Amino acid sequence: MNPLLSTLQPYPFERLRQLFAGVTPPASLPHISLGMGEPRHPTPAFIQEAMTANLGGLANYPATAGDIRLRQACADWMGRRYGVQLDAATQVLPVNGSREALFSFAQTVIDPTRAGATVICPNPFYQIYEGATLLAGATPYYAASEAGRNFAVNWDAVPDGVWAQTQLIFVCSPGNPTGAVMPLDEWKKLFELSDRYGFVIASDECYSEIYFRDDAPLGGLEAAKQLGRSDFRNLVAFTSLSKRSNVPGLRSGFVAGDAQLLKSFLLYRTYHGGAMSPTVQMASIAAWGDEAHVEDNRRMYREKFAAVTPLLADVMDVRLPDASFYLWAGVPAQLGMSDTEFARALFAEQHVTVLPGSYLARDAQGHNPGAGRVRMALVAETAECVDAARRIVQFIHSHSN
């Protein structure tokens, strides 16, 4: 067996199952899960129709590079959304969801034969970053997000010696679990560091279309263009239809950016077997070409967060995020509970699931930046999320007396 498999840590939801083992929640209360970030709004009918209308594609082997019509649809969307111009043939590549692409991209980029091969991850983070790093034979370095800076990563705290060994950095903006969006000055800092040390930037942007301000979140390629880096050197952006279009089961997204990096990524994927079904490609073309359903989806999230956030803000350290569908809430100090104790007791007493923040981060530089917080995914219908929030308020009041 590959010995690197033993370096992987249990996935957060496996740890959550272990945490809840032996707990019997009240049967009188229906279970409400705010734990998993799985979109639950209905899949738009026109996407389903586009898929069923193209079932003939199941009879064909797909090309790894994808249909040029899909690549052009992705490039056109990037132009409308971010104002960047891309060559669909060389700067865009369809992928089977951003999760698969983030993992396989690390296997393409990392050279484990170089001494001290390092990958920088935000902390807390999406665990695929860590798993991809470890299985590529590199060492993760965890750069902490700071509550006092709206959960922005403190890139200045990364030592020069770490930057010098870094081959790849994962950026997540809007962030999971914090919802923070990286501003232009931080992008400028990372680009300058990339130029100095030669590392690649993987920009995970799968939450980019769920936001609560008037201005849409800044994207990595958009930032590069604004800073005069229209060749997108050493930069690849990852995005997906899962959250944007409520099709997590479609497993469809794309990567875009540095043409030389994508040429190598395509070579890797040719052997890896990363081709997308022609049927899925046709449904994806339809999805990328329509914004009305995305606006409707965003409206539903805005209404939901407007109803839930004030309820929880009365009893927890929580505020409306910049973007994404998560609330990153602090466990009230007066309860005297850790984030894991809070999650277990809330499940036991109110039959509500939240994810402990410490499960989404690592102990690094002397602390776990996720400790004392919980992630709540507001993916259910508004009434269910409001019910969950009221139960959480009741739970906190009952333990504060």
Automatic annotation (TrEMBL):
It holds the Pfam family Aminotran_1_2. CDD domains: AAT_like. GO terms for molecular function: pyridoxal phosphate binding; succinyldiaminopimelate transaminase activity. Keywords: Aminotransferase, Transferase. InterPro entries: Aminotransferase_I/II_large (IPR004839), DapC_beta/gammaproteobac (IPR019878), LL-DAP_aminotransferase (IPR050881), PyrdxlP-dep_Trfase (IPR015424), PyrdxlP-dep_Trfase_major (IPR015421), PyrdxlP-dep_Trfase_small (IPR015422). Gene3D superfamilies: Aspartate Aminotransferase, domain 1 (3.90.1150.10), Type I PLP-dependent aspartate aminotransferase-like (Major domain) (3.40.640.10). The keyword Transferase applies. Its cofactor is pyridoxal 5'-phosphate. The keyword Transmembrane does not apply. GO terms for biological process: lysine biosynthetic process via diaminopimelate. Residues 32-379 form the Aminotransferase class I/classII large domain. PANTHER family: AMINO ACID AMINOTRANSFERASE, L-GLUTAMINE--4-(METHYLSULFANYL)-2-OXOBUTANOATE AMINOTRANSFERASE. NCBIfam families: DapC_gpp. This is Succinyldiaminopimelate transaminase.
